[in-house]
Amino acid sequence: MKAADSRREADRSAFMICDVRTSERSYLLITGTGAVPIHSMRVGKGNYIRRRVNTMKKMRKGHMILCLIALFLSNVAIMADMVIIPIADNLFKTYGNPTVINFILSGAAFLSVFTAMACAKLLYKFSKKTILIVSMILFAVGSIFGAAVDNIYYMLIMRILVGVAMGFVNATAMALIAELFDDEGARGKAMGFFNASMAGIGAVISVVAGIFAVNGWREVFKVYWISVPILILMILFIPMTPPDKEEVQENGGTVTPKKPYLSHQIGLLLSCFAYNLIYGVIFYQVAVLVFERGLGNESSAAILSSLGTVGSCVLCILFGFIYAKLKRATIVLGYVGICLSYLMLYLRPTQRWPEWRVRSVEPPMDTDFLISSCGVQ
């Protein structure tokens, strides 16, 4: 490599830019351990965009594994609703305010949509690690102490804190994983495993919450203490990344990234909104159905609510392979699956569980009960 003819300080951070006289101009990141290439891209005659090198790639293998474990375990915050779903019927019986109870059950997920969108702006001002740690602290407070006071409105406020944290954790964790993997195939596999861990963790904490709920519905909030060791893992092993910056040209100008068509964004938002409306009917009401039909106790409701996440876990593990084959059509497979599921529920004859069997024995848990109970009008 020929000698550099100029050197400029960039962002007052731990790297400098070197102009090198080569046919494809490259840049170097000057760090305490040596020089690392920075990818560049031509945007016009004589103009290049400098990009930060992903410093996460320079971590040791063991450190990176622990970092990924911390990110995957952050799904405890994203799947927080799985803990309180088994006690939905208990909340209705205890407080008797359907409007507030419904918001306690599903409002956190609703709020997370807006906080996830707001998080995109915060990524330009703060490090992803900072956002994750603050969000997990917020989640730990709102979830662990969610029922510390016997007041429905206190619980509502705590659930609002959980919803805010859910959106921040989800968006930031996904952004950090995307930063880790430049290759599209590797990124797709990583996203698949991240979502698989999300589904698997949701199933596990739901079953554990059901076991706790047998001793009293307030006991389920003890499950949220798992967020404390996860927070410690984040502090220790997630690297401090700089905030996202505007892409800067060599001549000092800025480049505004090309934004997707608004019609595409609106279409995607509407499809996701409709999908979650359909899915949420069973997801949030399965516990109520279990008690109304006499199909079991809180533990039974937890097992039923976790069945969907088990299926999600399996498909998310296969996501990388499926995405490599179908690309953008992958989402169509999900829509077809949920349509077929509801078609099965519609075609299934409605039936009541015989009263004598409900009183004498607790029916075995299998998917037939979810199908039959959801088919009852």
Q: What does this protein structure show overall?
A:
This protein has 377 residues and is of the alpha+beta class. The protein folds into 2 domains: 6-53, no CATH class; 56-374, MFS general substrate transporter like domains (Growth Hormone, Chain: A). It is 62% helix and 8% strand. The chain has 15 helices and 8 strands. It has helices at residues 61-73, 75-78, 81-84, 88-95, 98-122, 128-144, 152-180, 184-213, 227-237, 262-292, 298-317, 319-326, 330-347, 355-360, 367-374; strands at residues 6-9, 16-19, 27-31, 34-38, 40-44, 47-50, 247-249, 254-255. The strands form 3 sheets. Strands 5-6-7-8 form a 4-stranded antiparallel beta sheet, with no helix packed on it. It has a two-stranded antiparallel sheet with strand order 1-2. Helix 5 packs parallel to helix 7 (152-180) and helix 10 (262-292) runs antiparallel to helix 11 (298-317). The protein is globular, with a radius of gyration of 24 Å. Residues 1-56, 246-251 and 353-377 have low confidence and may be disordered.
